[in-house]
Design brief:
By secondary structure, the chain is mainly alpha-helical. It contains seven helices and no strands.
Length: 134
């Protein structure tokens, strides 16, 4: 039992260290695309949190976003977090899929307002705005 608790503690420490590295990179990189990519996962988590509280977001979309948030917070990953660059890749993919799912059910302006980062990144993730029928 003690080795299991130690493994969980080490796993949580590795996750926290990788997140700290992302935060440091996001602050130290010059403005531009590399900096925004380093900020992508934290921006996704902020967006998930904001959308969970918004009344225009349906329950299914909130559930998908909650699962994505739990996936990111979970120490269990398909790709270990301690691997540089590719470690958070599975987290990014899960959150991106959840945001695309939510984007089909949530007004686009609500989703764009919830995004704290560079608007071009979220617009690229969501794809082109649907043509309005008129």
């Amino acid at each position: 039992m003690r080795t299991w608790a130690m493994a969980v503690a080490v796993g949580a420490g590795v996750v926290l260290l990788s997140w700290a590295l992302l935060v440091v990179l996001a602050r130290r990189l010059p403005p531009g695309l590399p900096r925004e990519l380093a900020r992508f996962l934290p921006a996704c988590l902020t967006t998930v949190r904001r959308l969970r509280r918004h009344p225009a977001v349906p329950r299914r979309a909130k559930a998908a976003l909650a699962v994505a948030g739990l996936w990111v917070l979970s120490p269990v990953d398909l790709i270990p977090e301690f691997l540089p660059v590719i470690g958070p890749l599975d987290d990014v993919v899960v959150v991106a899929l959840a945001l695309r799912y939510a984007a089909r059910r949530v007004p686009r302006d609500v989703l764009l307002d919830a995004w704290p980062g560079d608007r071009r990144l979220i617009e690229r993730l969501l794809g082109p705005a649907p043509a309005s029928a008129g």
